[in-house]
Amino acid sequence: MTTPATTGRYFYGTGRRKEATARVRLYPGDGAIVVNGKPMEEIFAREIWQRQIAEPLSIANARGRYNVQIKCAGGGVSGWAGAIRHGIARALLASDETLRRPLRQAGMLTRDSRVKERKKPGLKRARKAPQYTKR
């Protein structure tokens, strides 16, 4: 069965976090993860980001089964890591519907809706007020 997120060659998922968007493709392969044409380790230097990206693959026991190709845009590196995690989880779900329960319980299918709060008039930042002086 071919769904909109599935084609004959790869499984597709879109992930979002903060201002970042990740378009993820899962190809059958040996486990290489490529982000914007570069190896994952080149862009994500911190170990925590690399673990976050690989987390859905670990839960699905698919760490060495798929090559992951990712295009990221917007935001920063931390947002990219969260968006990629979300996108990989959605692509895995497109590949195998039985993974819905473990991915849902791990909280990977839910978009993290936290975004930067806007600056309010009269304040220096979103909540920081100018210093009050009594005299």
Could you describe the largest sheet, including whether it forms a barrel? 5 strands, mixed
CATH T-level topology: Ribosomal Protein S5, domain 2
Task: Please trace the helix and strand order, writing H or E for each element.
Answer: EEEEHHEHH
Percent of residues in helices comes to: 25-40%
Question: Could you please describe the fold and organization of this structure?
Answer:
The chain has 135 residues and is α+β, with helices and mostly antiparallel strands. The chain has a single domain, classed as Ribosomal Protein S5, domain 2, CATH 3.30.230.10. The protein is built from four helices and five strands; from the N terminus they run E-E-E-E-H-H-E-H-H. Strands 1-2-5-3-4 form a five-stranded mixed beta sheet. Helix 2 packs parallel to helix 3. The longest helix has 19 residues. The radius of gyration is 18 Å and the shape is elongated. The model has no long low-confidence stretch (mean pLDDT 93).
